[in-house]
Specification:
It is a single chain. The chain is α+β, with helices and mostly antiparallel strands. The protein has one domain: 2-Layer Sandwich (Beta-Lactamase). Helices cover 46% and strands 26% of the residues. It is built from three helices and five strands, in the order αββαβββα. Strands 2-1-5-4-3 form a five-stranded antiparallel sheet, with helices on both faces.
């Protein structure tokens, strides 16, 4: 996998959105491929928890609406965690400040997800 191209996606995401404090591209099974996390954040834990959150969300939405979620958002006093399915095998997790303008954050997530999806498509995964 072309990790440098994926790292550039996260770098651009942080340039585009100053509200995003951390981000990671994670495999469906919870392995962090690339990340830009705040100091002291364990990328292995973020990867595993992101995959678990999306898995539980998928089961819930499938049972309730016979669909699958595009993103799952968790809100706390410390900010937002947003887990987005980029492809069936790739997740994008971002942590955003509590005062974030969510419309802009979701726009920037969508842009980054599209870029990552193109890279995955280009390398044939």
């Amino acid at each position: 996998m072309n990790v440098n191209r994926l790292e550039k996606v996260l770098y651009q995401l942080h340039i585009d959105s100053l509200e995003i404090e951390s981000s990671a591209l994670i495999s469906q099974d919870g392995l962090t491929l690339v990340s830009q996390l705040k100091k002291g954040v364990n990328e292995d834990h973020i990867g595993a928890m992101s995959a678990a959150i999306l898995s539980v969300g998928n089961r819930m939405i499938e049972n309730l609406a016979h669909s699958s979620p595009n993103s799952i958002m968790i809100q706390s006093n410390a900010g937002y965690v947003i887990v987005t399915a980029v492809t069936d095998e790739l997740l994008l997790t971002v942590m955003a400040r509590p005062d974030s303008k969510l419309g802009m954050v979701f726009h920037d997530i969508k842009t980054a997800a599209n870029s990552a999806r193109e890279i995955i498509h280009d390398i044939g995964l």
